[in-house]
Give the backbone structure.
Amino acid sequence: MANHQSAFKRMRVSEKRRVVNRQSRKRLTTMIKRLRSASSKEEAQKLLPETVALLDKSASKGLIHANKAANQKSNLTRFVNKMA
């Protein structure tokens, strides 16, 4: 258990950041799932820019690694382009 005032503050801040990061990660995975389960190519093309923007934002904030974001953007774009 924390003994110093600064340690108590770190615990509070860490908990707040953990909650925000979990929400952001969940939002990202939900967007990717929604894009992958799109029924038509038009719907997928509409969701792709939103998902790519969210991936870029997550990478810039350090939520995911920049290379992971690039790989996911590439895979999702290829997925949408291959749709009939």
Summary: The radius of gyration is 17 Å.
